[in-house]
């Protein structure tokens, strides 16, 4: 038997699930998974549990699109995964549902816009990196040690009485950074 399963989430503890819960019950969701998780949090155990319960022919219902995905690309990926399982998706506020051809079309327009947005971001990033290279700026993090410091450290480490950890502390870097920049083969504490 096909079920309508709800998923409700809030991003902070001072927000409440009452409105979402009520709306989901009103449209016939017998089972509702509820979660309070930050939008930045990658792990959402209730959503994962909800997705495990869904079977082909079921419908996952949310109050609003932003309750399901942390970003538009994330939302598109979740709905695509559901579609592969034969699970439908419905968002009450935006009146989007993937159970009909018109609903699928609407959602795929959103997906196309998300892909377009990713392409624009990628293009801008590449253009910015090319412009920086043209100005003589290499990308990436600046080295922790300059050439003069590397020469000084090499001289210091020739003395077997000097410990790598002491030199690292003196220059404000880790031992690993010293090994990387100076090429110390046998680590000495």
UniProtKB/TrEMBL annotation:
Residue ranges constituting the Resolvase/invertase-type recombinase catalytic domain according to the UniProt record: 3-136
SMART domains with a match to the protein in the record: Resolvase
Annotated active site: 11
Keyword DNA-binding part of the UniProt annotation: yes
InterPro entries cross-referenced by the UniProt entry: Homeodomain-like_sf, Recombinase_CS, Resolv_N, Resolvase-like_N_sf, Resolvase_HTH_dom, SSR_resolvase
Any matching Pfam family: Resolvase
Recorded GO MF terms: DNA binding; DNA strand exchange activity
Family: Belongs to the site-specific recombinase resolvase family.
Designated name of the protein: Recombinase family protein
Organism: Diaphorobacter aerolatus
């Amino acid at each position: 038997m096909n079920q309508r399963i709800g998923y409700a989430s809030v991003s902070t503890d001072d927000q409440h699930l009452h409105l979402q819960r009520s709306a989901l019950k009103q449209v016939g969701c017998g089972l509702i998974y509820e979660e309070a998780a930050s939008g930045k949090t990658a792990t959402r155990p209730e959503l994962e549990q909800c997705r495990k319960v869904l079977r082909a022919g079921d419908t996952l219902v949310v109050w609003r699109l932003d309750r399901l995905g942390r970003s538009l690309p994330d939302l598109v990926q979740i709905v695509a995964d559901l579609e592969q399982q034969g699970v439908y998706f419905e968002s009450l506020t935006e009146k989007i549902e993937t159970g009909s051809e018109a609903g699928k079309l609407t959602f795929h327009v959103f997906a196309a816009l998300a892909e377009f947005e990713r392409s624009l971001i990628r293009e801008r990033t590449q253009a910015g990196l090319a412009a920086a290279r043209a100005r003589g700026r290499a990308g990436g993090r600046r080295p922790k040690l300059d050439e003069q410091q590397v020469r000084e450290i090499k001289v210091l480490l020739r003395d077997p009485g000097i410990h790598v950890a002491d030199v690292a502390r003196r220059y404000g870097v880790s031992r690993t950074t010293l090994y990387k920049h100076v090429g110390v083969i046998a680590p000495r504490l």
